[in-house]
Amino acid sequence: MLQSHFSRRFLRTAATAVAVAALAGCTVVGPDYTPPPDPALPSSWEATDTATHTREVTAWWQQFNDPVLNQLIKRGAQQNLSIEAAGLRIVQARAALGISDALVFPQQQQVNGNLSKLYQNEQSFNSAAISLDVGWEMDIWGKYARGIESAEASLYASIASYRDVLVTVTAEITRNYINYRTAQERIHLSRQNIAIQQRVVAMTQVQFESGNVSELDVQQAKTQLFATQSSLPGLTIQRLQARNALAVLLGTLPEEVEPMLAPGGERENTDFESQIRDTSREFADPATYSAESVIPVAPELDPRIDPQLVLRRPDLQVAELQARAQSARIGLTEADLYPQFFLFGSIGLAETVRPGDGFSASNAVTAAIGPGLSWNIFQYGRIENRVRIEDALFQQSLNNYNQRVLQAVQEVSDALEGYRYTLEKSQYDFSAVEASIRAFNISANQYNNGLVTYQRLLSTVEKMTLREDIYAQTRGSIANQLVALYKALGGGWEAHTDLPMVKPETAGQMKSRTDWGDYLEPETIVGEDRHE
């Protein structure tokens, strides 16, 4: 009867305390986060059809119409180690959010027990106790609510960071692929010019043996030939460096990348010596020249820019979400200025008996419940200054967001202008190639007929070799400017939203060590507009 009466009073007291906590827990201190307004963008940017432009940016590399490039980017998204590390950071952020969520429930839930032998005045006793202890700090000031808000913003920031890594890796794969093909093209042109110069050396040797020219002409011809041949090792180094960079981006070894790059690189192995029967060269229009080249042809670019594409860049989302997380930390810290109320409760069994006597649970029930108070008074400004630090960090994060926006504008503007003027440069470079080839053909014919000196012929050979190499570099630069533009617009991650955050084999290894629940199940990372 006594136990029943005690139990009813215990339950009534607990219910009353919970009701008081529920009524009181409606205040959340600290500032509520307000997204920064959309910043001003250059007035020279013209809005275009958003849907069409978004589709172009989503899988922009496909506009190069290069199957090898498409396959490399697909494999990079699946195998790149930086992307997988970013996915694991999402898993960590989700676990951190789970910790914050759990703090709204009783923070202390412990079962404690002991069994001991007591000695007192030459007498001994057996003592045993077991209890369930519960402690719950009521979230009256929104301390834990702000913690959840901060952890949730950090989770979304990790997702945006994952997307930003996808953007970077996609752009870097494309850039290094372009550099690889550009080096191949320059090697091709260099070997072609070496074959021509070998013909010139042979022709000059015949002229020397006939007594028509001096040995000086022969040595000058050889000097030009050796100088062109010396460029091949440097170009080969550039090609191999681009290949090795691709290997890192694909998460594999260089020798495994080489077979992937073989299609499209056949021109490098052309037998020029058997093809060139004289010292004349042919030239074609730019379209034909580009079609025969291994350098990816940059698609025609719409110069209009949709400003919303810039504001949806993943790195800008990361900066804003970090500001949101920091804003919540102000309230989390400010809550320490106020008294913290908590409920505590304990129920269990405790009894001490003489040796030989048995334990009886009938009279050993113990229980306790009640409210508690904790207040950090006389802190001499320590808490206030912690709040000030968090507020300064929040303002710094807003400045960081605005700085990122300015950098985004700079990157887009640099890429747009770079593409425009490099394209203009390419027109002049091709005209220079065309003129240099024609000048070489004329001078070679006139030299054979004794109408010009060898110095004139040597000059046209040198200029033709230089202008063709510069034109190849310019065409590679055009393609890279386009890559820089689409990277600046934050494009590329949308095409890979069907990928799991963590590779299945990695998830399997982690599950074998730890109970991950459903955290590592394949999921689609969907986009959310953080500028609502």
Average pLDDT, rounded to a whole number, is 83
Beta-strand residue fraction:
5-15%
Uncertain runs: 1-25, 271-277, 524-532
Q: Shape from CA axes?
A: elongated
Overall strand count: 4
Radius of gyration: 37 Å
Structure annotation, total helices: 14
Order of helices and strands: HHHHEEHHHHHHHEEHHH
Biggest β-sheet strands, sense, barrel? 4 strands, antiparallel
Structural class: alpha+beta
CATH class: Mainly Alpha
CATH architecture: Up-down Bundle
Distance between the termini: 61 Å
Spatial strand order of the main sheet? 1-2-3-4
Q: Helix content range of the residues, please? A: 55-70%
> CATH topology, which one?
Outer membrane efflux proteins (OEP)
**How many structural domains can be distinguished in the coordinates?**
1
CATH superfamily: Outer membrane efflux proteins (OEP)
Please provide a written account of the structure.
- There is one protein chain.
- A 4-stranded antiparallel β-sheet has the order 1-2-3-4, with helices on one face.
- The longest helix is centred in the N-terminal third of the chain and has 67 residues, at 143-209.
- Helix 3 runs antiparallel to helix 5.
- It starts with a helix and ends in a 19-residue tail after the last helix.
- A hairpin with a 2-residue loop joins strand 1 (108-120) and strand 2.
- Helix content is 61%, strand content 10%.
- The protein has one domain (2-295, 310-334, 398-513): Outer membrane efflux proteins (OEP).
- Residues 1-25, 271-277 and 524-532 have low confidence and may be disordered.
- With 532 residues, the protein is α+β, with helices and mostly antiparallel strands.
- It is built from 14 helices and 4 strands.
